[in-house]
Amino acid sequence: MVIAHIFIGTFIGMMSFVVAMVQGASFWTGLGAYCVVGAGTTILMGTVQYLLTRGKAETASHTVEVVTAPPAPVAEVAPPPPVQPETVAETMEETGDEAVRSMKVLAVDDDPFILELVPKIAAMVGCEDITVAHSGPEALEIIANAEEPFDCLLLDINMPEMDGIELCARVRKLEDYQDTSIIMLTAMSDLDHLDRAFRAGASDYTTKPFDIIEFGDRLKTAQSRSSDNWTRAHEAEAAQAEGEGVDDWGSARLARLASVPAIIGYSALQNYLTRLSGPALEEAFVMAISVDRAAGPSDDADSAVPLRSLIMVARAIDDVFRNSKYMMAYAGHGQFVIVSSGQSLPRAAGIEGAIQERMSRKSGMGRPDASVSVGTAVRPGAGRMRRARVAFENALNLAGVRAAGKRGEHQWKLKQKLGF
Description:
Blueprint: H1 2-22, H2 27-67, H3 85-94, H4 96-101, E1 104-108, H5 112-124, E2 129-133, H6 136-145, E3 152-156, H7 164-172, E4 181-186, H8 191-199, E5 204-207, H9 212-241, H10 251-258, E6 263-264, H11 266-275, H12 278-283, E7 284-291, H13 307-321, E8 327-332, E9 335-341, H14 348-363, E10 372-374, H15 387-418
Parallel strand pairs: 1-2, 1-3, 3-4, 4-5, 6-8
Antiparallel strand pairs: 7-9, 7-10, 8-9
Helix pairs in contact: 1-2, 6-7, 10-13, 11-15, 13-14
């Protein structure tokens, strides 16, 4: 606005100079007219604008005073009911931003600058309960002495004495941290560290320097996962109290019971596939393996799969894929998802036969307690945002198609045998 005033003042000053010269005045007289008229116009316009702006501000101030008039007497207004703690808790659960503020985060990094930066970025998304540690041993001590478990851990990979991957593996062995979100922070983005981090139990992975928006999204995702874990835990407790069967045992528990370290969380496996790039992405493929349900009149697609069967299938899958670089997640309802790599896609029938053969061998009776259906392998798309979700859905659908085909074939053979 000031530049506009100067431009207008200069223009009017030039007009006065031209008028003075046309009327026969000397050059110096015309120059004086230019300076006086131009400067006067600029000052006058600035003064007028100031007075107008001040008038508007005073009007707004008076308006606010009218709006914020004193409240009605207390005798005429009924006091609100006292707020109970339960009401506050329910409100925080319903409001996403409030829920993010309540998340407890532990950030571990040997760089003081990062430990100073992380709380500031986290505060931008409403996450203010941040505890920092400068090393792995210090972090373990903080975790051991914490009254309540942390909801999210941010671990730098490259630290002296104990790196972030070792710290992640130790934390995952703790009962209260098997499903906690663990985000790895590092300037290293090569595939070797990516694989090691996720195999150690990382939930997600981000590189330094931080992208503020992306980092904020990671924290919001961690909060959402923490809420989901809390809900699932209480639903499982309620189901156990009612004697219901629950087959969503969780990847963490299944990995521990089956002694298969390649089993990681479902969302972690999606994040892993999302981070792949270059040749690693070009050779990656996704397969789904479904535990077949017992055929019969009581067959229910949502019925519980025995934990013994899940452990047997997980170990057989590990035997088949052990010599290749792969990771696996349990998707619930008797379904596993595998991410591996290869220049050519494996044959689903060959993988299914190999898994079935290993299950038969380990059962010791020739006939295992369960059978599996393996869907056709799919390549993930190039688009990063929806790559993992689409690939996983396609793989699971293909495994479902294979299982449905086997059930139809079984029923047809049964009818033939009975003479129908």
